[in-house]
């Protein structure tokens, strides 16, 4: 049972629906002082871990910083499949769904992906769209693929991956920690 929630003074935490929910559930809402993230050190440490993972995903994939949000989403997705010391080394996924997660669908962030093209314009048109893997779809078993030609993101389950090719990576990283 949750007894306290600590947040900053953001407007997203100052709405009547949320405050009445806290009151109804007996949850105390604690607010940090302005510009003092150290008062919410547990959440801030978790954020730092996630951002570090996202930075590594971007670095290894060769994708530009403009894809940081996709990297963060993928880092969180992977964290939910990974044992966590704060819950006795259980996987968050197992806690929520009461079963072990399948890892068969995992692929390296930024690897090459070919999405099945269902819009066929003739016998000799391409049957696939070349893209880059940007993460996992929400709520269903699907993948987010950047269409390299058009620049848009396609969400599909019908994808073939080459886990060893990274289209955006020109050279291997010289410094993994920068």
TrEMBL record:
GO terms for cellular component: nucleus. It catalyses: DNA(n) + a 2'-deoxyribonucleoside 5'-triphosphate = DNA(n+1) + diphosphate. Residues 1-100 form the Integrase catalytic domain. InterPro entries: Integrase_cat-core, Retrotran_Ty1/copia-like, RNaseH-like_sf, RNaseH_sf, SH3_retrovirus. GO terms for molecular function: DNA-directed DNA polymerase activity; endonuclease activity; hydrolase activity; metal ion binding; RNA binding; RNA-directed DNA polymerase activity. It comes from the Eukaryota. Keywords: DNA integration, DNA recombination, DNA-directed DNA polymerase, Endonuclease, Hydrolase, Magnesium, Metal-binding, Nuclease, Nucleotidyltransferase, RNA-binding, RNA-directed DNA polymerase, Transferase, Transposition. GO terms for biological process: DNA integration; DNA recombination; transposition. PROSITE patterns: INTEGRASE. This is Integrase catalytic domain-containing protein. The lineage of its organism: Eukaryota, Fungi, Dikarya, Basidiomycota, Pucciniomycotina.
């Amino acid at each position: 049972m949750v007894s306290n929630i600590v947040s900053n003074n953001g407007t997203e935490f100052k709405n009547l629906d949320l405050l009445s929910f806290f009151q109804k559930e007996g949850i105390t809402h604690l607010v940090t002082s302005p510009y003092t993230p150290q008062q919410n050190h547990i959440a801030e440490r978790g954020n730092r871990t996630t951002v570090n993972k996202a930075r590594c995903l971007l670095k290894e994939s060769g994708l530009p910083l403009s894809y940081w949000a996709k990297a963060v989403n993928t880092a969180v997705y992977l964290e939910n499949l990974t044992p966590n010391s704060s819950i006795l080394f259980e996987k968050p996924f197992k806690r929520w769904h009461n079963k072990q997660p399948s890892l068969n669908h995992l692929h390296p962030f930024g690897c090459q992906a070919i999405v099945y093209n269902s819009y066929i314009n003739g016998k000799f048109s391409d049957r696939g769209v070349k893209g880059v893997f940007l993460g996992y779809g929400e709520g269903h078993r699907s993948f987010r693929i950047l269409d390299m030609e058009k620049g848009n993101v396609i969400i599909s389950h019908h994808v073939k991956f080459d886990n060893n090719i990274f289209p955006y990576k020109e050279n291997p990283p010289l410094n993994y920690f920068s």
